[in-house]
Amino acid sequence: METKTILVADDESHILNVVSLKLRNAGFRVVTARDGQEAFEMALAEKPDLLITDYHMPQLSGIELCQKLKQDPATSAIPAIMLTARGYQLEPSDTEQSGILRMLSKPFSPRQLLTTVNEVLELPQAA
Amino acid sequence: MGLRRIKSLLILMVALIAGGAVCFLPGATGWMSRWADPHTLTFTGGALCLLGAISGLLTVTVVRRNNRQLLDRLRQIALDGRFKYLEAGDGEFVPLAAAMNDLIDFAEKTVSDAAMKTKELEIQLKVATAERQHAEAIIYSISDAVLVTDPFDDLVLANESAARTFEFDLQRAGRLPIAQVLKDEKMIGLIREMRQSKSTNGRRIVEHQVKAGNGAAKTFKITLSCVSNQTDEPAGVVAVLHDMTKEKEVAEMKNDFVSNVSHELRTPLASIKAYVEMLIDGEAEDEQTKREFYEVIQNEANRLSRLIDNILNISRIESGLVKVNKGPQSLMVILKEALDVIAPQARQKQIELNEKLTPVFYQTLADKDMLYQAVLNLLSNAVKYTPEAGTITVETLVDEAKKKVITRISDTGVGIPPKDLPFVFDKFYRAEANNRMAKGTGLGLSLVKHIVETVHHGRIFVESHVGKGSTFGFELDLCE
Lengths: 127, 480
Description:
- The complex is a heterodimer.
- By secondary structure, chain A is an alpha/beta fold.
- Chain A has helices spanning 13-25, 36-46, 62-71, 92-98, 110-122; strands spanning 5-9, 29-33, 50-54, 80-84, 100-105.
- Chain A is globular and about 30 Å long.
- In chain B, β11 (459-465) and β12 (469-479) form a beta hairpin.
- Chain B contains 14 helices and twelve strands.
- In chain B, α1 (3-24) runs antiparallel to α3, α10 packs across α14 and α12 runs antiparallel to α14.
- Chain B folds into three domains: 1-133; 142-243, PAS domain (Beta-Lactamase), CATH 3.30.450.20; 254-479, Heat Shock Protein 90, CATH 3.30.565.
- Chains A and B meet through α1 of A and α9 and α10 of B.
């Protein structure tokens, strides 16, 4: 089975490290970005199978990043999981315009994140 | 001379003249000639007539004199403007004087009653004026805007606050229709509706936004009530407008604050929870990774604890409940301790920490825990807003002459735009441009200012250039 690539974007290095380690241990290839703009460039270059992004980031917020990726035909198919420390609720419009399929609230469980990642990757649109 | 005497005089005069006339009657000499000859009769008649004339003259003189006296006294009363009883010394005017005196009594009583009534009315007027002024003073003194209208929707009373809110001239607005005074259609409509409802004991509370000429909008809570007159008929409307703009802002700030604080608490908590779970699940394979995880957990727990300290301290200082424990402290020792705590965060971003500290024997009268908190906040901000591989310099300068010590914490960070600089120490304020650079509650710098200025009576300052970096610092008194 082909190794799937996951792009993780978060300005909190601790979160970035722990998510990366969990996913690598689970057999994924992980690329990371420290802000929204870097994540966008990385997504264009790496064409990841999934994006895990923080909501509040410098340069581009998680929502802006996902909307930008959705608008670009080269990256519009990338599904996204959002991590947020704000009690933000996912609206249907977010899913339509941004490709965000799941939202996890911080503090989160890496175990649960991994389950969510597997779920999203198994969805027909992520295949 | 009395009236009776005048009467006697008049009778005497008539008798004398009559006697005299009889002497001259034709034929009188015939039947009188028995007692007197015609010459004597003529003489006697002439003498009697003369005496009669004299007594008549005397009567006229007396009457005229009494009249003059009476007139003089009446004139005197008129001149003096005071009532004086007429003297009844001259007997013949006693009844007249008494009658006049009764008249005077009556006039005097009428005038005095009128004066009493006037006084009473004056007092009533004064009381009413004082009451009105009192009511006006109350209305003028309250900060809420007040508008009072009559049954014809004319403005009867308004205060300064109302004039400011609706931008009209208070001096010229009296008794003008509200439609001419107020430009706010909604407000005019509210007053009219209230007046038309004629509910004499009802109140209506409405929230309404009033736009000023310069476009600034203020939110008011308007309480409208009908006032009634003595016969319980609606006499007009009172509108009291309470400015809720500030309250709304505070409510919004509180909301933002709760949202920011919960976000700030969740961030370190998220790391702690994730790393603990990774350790439990055995995801950290080697000892080196495990140690790194423990350090992350420890640092994030410290960050959480600092955040909670900030929140608690700021509310304690602001409410005046904080216990200040001042003693001679070496500022340099405090700075060293704070630098040790912040070093791991700086290392993580490859930020170089430079120290240019003066010797430890310089002391300042300070609450060690609070000053440590202030320094740590400034250092933590410097690390937050300095990009990777930047530099942070901490220096102290001692001014022996002025007995002052200045601490400067300079970074090579993003800097603060000039428009935001005057507000950086305000509670909850966050420079929009730097909001994306790092998360925060907008509490840290506000706490630093409180600690330096409120608790230590020092001076806080900031210098900043966008893209080059910022210097935050404070000046404290040295102690002997």
